[in-house]
Amino acid sequence: MARRSRGGPGTRIASVADFESWAARQSPAELAEPFTYVVGADGLLCLAPRRSEHVACAGGAAVLGAGEITFVREAGQWAASEVSNQSTGYCPDVTSWPAVARALDGIPLRRPAAFTHEVVFRRCPACAEHNIVREGDFVCVFCGSDLPKAWNVDVDDVGRSAHP
Fold first, then answer.
1. Which residues make Cβ contacts (< 8 Å) with residue 120, sequence separation at least 6?
2. Looking at the chain, which terminus has fewer C-beta neighbours within 10 angstroms, N or C?
3. Contact between 111 and 105 (Cβ < 8 Å)
4. Alpha carbons 119 and 122: distance in angstroms, whole number
5. By C-alpha distance, which of 121, 122, 17 is closest to 67?
6. In a structure prediction context, what are the per-residue pLDDT tens digits for the chain, which is 164 residues long?
7. For 154, which DSSP code?
8. 3-class SS at 94?
9. Residue 83's beta-bridge partner residues?
10. How far apart are CA 57 and CA 37, in angstroms?
């Protein structure tokens, strides 16, 4: 079955000039909220409106990282103020941070030292459902089975990798 995703491919950002051009096309209201991002296999950041799906932002391709990102303008320069790995399309591990950091550093944009909000994803080995682990409770919310302590969402049901 084909999956429909909301939004289109994201805008690739390889330089400060790319970012500033992209930011100039966003409304003040859009700039005030997080954006959807992916880091493609090429290591470049791609941005899309927050309500876009990560899979659409990446054009359906494999990614090194995905989540939501917020930007602020400080002292005349743009910076990433908040970055998460919140993407239910790819369910990236928290260890995807280095790929995200490299993408931001390559532009370059100032950034936090780590994800400002980490989401722990696991796939249930018993029922194959994706879970968000909350408060360290590694139990599947769908079937009650134990979830593995190590990240195990390497490839989703249509074969897209979400691991660095």
1. 94, 132, 133
2. N
3. yes
4. 10
5. 121
6. 233 445 678 999 999 999 999 999 999 999 999 999 999 999 999 999 988 999 999 999 999 999 999 999 989 999 999 999 999 999 999 999 999 999 999 999 999 999 999 999 999 999 999 999 999 999 999 999 999 999 999 754 444 455 54
7. S
8. helix
9. 69
10. 7
b/e map 107-124, b = 16+ CB within 10 Å:
bebebeeebeeebbbbbb
Could you tell me the two tokens for 45? 């950041």
Give the containing element (helix H, strand E) for 97: helix 97-106
Q: Peptide bond before 108: cis, by omega within 30 degrees of 0?
A: yes
Residue 120's nearest CA partner among 144, 148, 81, 145 is 148
Instruction: Round the CA-based radius of gyration of the chain to a whole number and report it.
Output: 16
Per residue, what are the HEC states of 20-77? HHHHHCCCHHHHCCCEEEEEECCCCEEEECCCCCHHHHCCCCCEEEEEEEEEEEECCE
